[in-house]
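User: Please fill in residues for this 299-position structure.
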């Protein structure tokens, strides 16, 4: 039987916490909690650091148990939206062009899933490399001709000081130790390198309105960042966050419906059954409290 442990604040290491939400769904099997990227809502006790305001899960399973789930995860549903994801990523690169390294740069995407960002980065002119724990997703990415290594930021074979930009797309909230991950990323970057962090922002008014039903409070999300906590964790790991932007993504309507059902949003199961196929295929741009932050290495 695997046990849960009280966590120190992942940003400031304080042991002082107050409870924000108690779990309202009983599920304790690590294979179910961490074995799919989409996760399970309502299974975690969410606390807030009294010293710095960071919001995170505590108590929590140990890192080895969590990473074992990520490694075994099967992601056919996530991967079904591959072309839409490539399109969203490419548009974001264009939009942030003035802050990003010029085409030709070496870029690393950590937690690259099936490699959609690598595809967009290649189209943009970058030399793109990916790292991903799920064996299933690594195989899908390799079949697309992308350069992907199976592993995590704690266990890689990449050369220090060799990248112009490192990206964490919807990844930092999954990492058991985000501060040590950012410190390792600071070593992988060249001087003045760029760190891109896309994260679900629990500081938005939509998140505050949703409370414990905020759709990103999922078993796979160990940490919940705000703009302040991103600024804090960056400054503690050698980075300066200098730009924040809402992230609009484009996915097919039917996929969004299926996710809404999965996240137990009322009435969506009925609406999904009534939606004709051609409507399910329509691309929908949406904003769901995700934010893109850019940070610069301070050396
Ligand atoms: Zn703290």
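Assistant: Residues filled in for all 299 positions:
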């Amino acid at each position: 039987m695997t046990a849960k442990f009280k966590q120190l604040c992942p940003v400031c290491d304080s042991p002082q916490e107050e409870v924000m939400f108690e779990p309202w769904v009983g599920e304790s099997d690590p294979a179910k909690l961490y074995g799919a990227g989409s996760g399970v809502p309502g299974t975690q006790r969410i606390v807030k650091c009294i010293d710095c305001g960071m919001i995170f899960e505590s108590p929590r399973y140990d890192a080895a148990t969590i990473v074992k789930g990520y490694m075994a995860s099967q992601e056919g549903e996530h991967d079904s939206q591959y072309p839409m994801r490539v399109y969203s990523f490419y548009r974001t690169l264009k939009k942030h062009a003035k802050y990003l390294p010029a085409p030709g740069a070496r870029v690393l995407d950590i937690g690259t899933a099936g490699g959609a960002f690598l595809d967009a980065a290649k189209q943009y002119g970058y030399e793109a490399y990916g790292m991903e724990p799920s064996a299933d997703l690594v195989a899908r990415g390799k079949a697309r001709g992308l350069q992907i290594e199976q592993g995590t930021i704690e266990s890689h074979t990449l050369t220090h000081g060799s990248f112009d930009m490192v990206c964490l797309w919807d990844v930092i909230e999954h990492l058991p130790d985000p501060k040590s991950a950012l410190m390792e990323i600071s070593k992988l970057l060249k001087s003045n390198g760029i760190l891109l962090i896309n994260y679900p922002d629990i500081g938005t008014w939509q998140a505050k309105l949703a409370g414990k039903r905020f759709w990103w409070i999922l078993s796979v999300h160990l940490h919940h960042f705000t703009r302040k906590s991103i600024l804090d964790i960056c400054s503690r790991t050698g980075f300066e966050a200098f730009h924040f932007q809402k992230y609009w993504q484009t996915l097919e309507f039917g996929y969004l419906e299926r996710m809404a059902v999965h996240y137990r949003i009322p009435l969506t199961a009925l609406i999904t059954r009534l939606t004709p196929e051609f409507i399910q295929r329509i691309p929908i741009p949406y904003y769901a409290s995700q934010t893109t932050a850019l940070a610069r290495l301070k050396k």
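For context: The chain has one domain: 4-297.
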